[in-house]
Amino acid sequence: MRPLPRRLGLRTIACGLLLLSFSSVAVGQGTEPEPAMPLADTTKLDDELQPPRQVEVEPHADDQQIAARLQRILEATDWFHEPRVRVDEGVVFLSGSTTSEEHRQWARNLALRTRDVVAVVNRIEVVERPLWDLSPAFAELRDLWRRAIQISLLVVFALLVLVIFWFAARFAAALARRVFHERVSNRLLREVAAKTLALLVFILGLYLVLRISGLTRLALTVVGGTGVVGIIVGIAFRDIAENFLASILISMQNPFQTGDLIEVAGYEGFVQRVTTRGTVLIALDGTYIQIPNSTIYKSTIRNTTANPKNRQEFTIGISYDDPIAYAQEVALRVLREHPTVLDDPEPLVLVEGLGTSTVNLRVLFWINSNAYSMLRVRSSVMRLVKRAFQDAAITLPDEAREVIFPKGVPLAPPGDGHPHPAPPPKKTADLSEDEQQVSTAAEGDLRNEADEIEAQARQSRMPEQGEDLLAPKE
Given pLDDT bands bounded at 50, 70 and 90, which one contains residue 234? Predict the structure, then answer.
């Protein structure tokens, strides 16, 4: 606190001695003195209502300078109606009106923290706002209107920037495809590189848009690890990312090609196309099968077309009375004369086992599955072997079992004196010339069904959309 000015003189000193004597008398009479007024209000105010720790004026400022400084501050806040500040001997007198008790306390604390102020007399009145006073609502509406206009301008500008970067991303993708066309042979890798570059350019544009809009933290989140990349490979899109990575590996390793007959995850069919999501097969019955790429990559793949040589087999039983070597020679002759059976690997006729009433022969032969149908050729070979056995008088018994009758077999039912009529003679099979042909009308052409299935595929609707990753190279 600044020293008392000289103009106080003896009068000020006398007043001080008089007050000191009164205080001494009060203490002597047992009356406790009134505590001094604290310089800071204990009421918790908002940050905006907290006055500065100290309002600086010129060193050893006089009362007029203090009053002028506080007057300008109160008028600048626009919280007070007709504020008046008067300072006399370092004592500040505040007057006027306000609509908030917090504003009244703020003015008092402000004056107390002003340099060279001895005390504050706060005469500011708190006036309640009239019920019909809508000025705060109008002020809020004006503020909202101003913000809406500013946001609209920012949105328009942000959309313009986003459109520019969208076209820039498309241009970058086209440029990447042209650059990698001669350098990268894998078509899928070229597309992945082009789309990755386009995505980076678009993310850059999105980052600039968010920065322009004032969303700096969100912009950093988009660019950072918790942004777009984290969302793509997150839990919600785990299957999509897994299928996409599996499509890249399938395209690089080429476990099958378009038109191959494969069996995977219990499904069999001809490969039609492979997209970034799944692989499309068309089964032998003409139905389409869509299998996710992740399932195909993790499952066992049986590719029938990769090796054109495919082995077929079947079992046929002959009687115990027939010579086995002769029956093997008859069946082997049929296999060697068949136009679709390959000589290398050579066909075989092996004894598989001894049944209850038959000797089982296992017939094995190889065909070119890319040229001929496995089902049709197998049917043709079984038919011709059966006809050759009948021509060679080789018996083909059924799976009968031996039944023992300890007391013999009665020829007539008990109590019936008439003999039982004999059964009619068994008719021999009518062997026509069609059975001697390699293929019959019922078996049709022995060629592979791939051409027929492909023709059906061209006439049907492909259920899986997207670019075929197994398409021939450009």
Answer: low
Whether the ω angle into residue 345 lies within 30 degrees of 0, i.e. cis, is yes
Q: Whole-angstrom Cα distance, residue 248 to residue 234?
A: 19
Residue in 421, 397, 426 with CA at minimum distance from that of residue 411: 421
Question: What pTM, to 2 d.p., does this model score?
Answer: 0.46
- 146: tokens are 């101003």
Give the C-alpha separation, 204 to 211, whole Å. Answer: 11
Give the chain's end-to-end CA distance (angstroms, integer).
Answer: 91
- Residue 256: which domain range? 251-306+448-474
Opening angle at CA 277, ends 276 and 283, nearest 5: 110
> 456 is written with which tokens?
């059906």
With a CB cutoff of 8 Å and minimum separation 6, the contacts of 116 are 1, 2, 57, 60, 61, 66, 90
Q: Are 247 and 188 in contact (CB under 8 A)?
A: yes
Q: Give the residue among 457, 405, 223 at the shortest CA–CA distance from 231.
A: 223
Beta bridge partners of 302: 263
Rounded to the nearest 10°, the torsion over CA 381, 386, 390, 396 is: 150
Give CA–CA dist 80/98, Å, rounded: 5
Q: Is residue 412 part of a domain?
A: no
β-strand partners of 97: 81, 125
Write down which residue in 126, 151, 179 finishes a domain. 126
**Backbone phi, then psi, for 263, in 5-degree steps?**
-130, 120
Asked if residue 425 is part of any domain, the answer here is: no
Q: What pLDDT, in 10s, does the model give residues 321-357?
A: 999 999 999 999 999 999 999 998 899 999 999 988 8
Question: CATH number of the domain that 437 lies in?
Answer: 3.30.70.100
List phi, psi (to 5°) of 458. Answer: -70, -25
Counting every residue written for the chain, the total comes to 474
Using alpha carbons only, give the angle 395, 399, 402 rounded to the nearest 5 degrees: 100
Q: What DSSP string runs through 205-269?
A: HHHHHHHHTT-HHHHHHHHSTTSHHHHHTSSTTHHHHHHHHHHHHHHHH-S--TT-EEEETTEEE
79-105 burial, b at 16+ Cβ within 10 Å, e below that, comes to bbeebebbbeebebbbebebbeebbbb
Average pLDDT, the chain: 76
Contact 74, 92 (CB under 8 A): no
Query: Residues 83, 96: contact at Cβ < 8 Å?
Result: yes
87 and 22, same structural domain? yes
What residue has token string 């008398």? 25
pLDDT at 133: 66
Give the DSSP H/E element, type plus range, for residue 126: strand 119-126
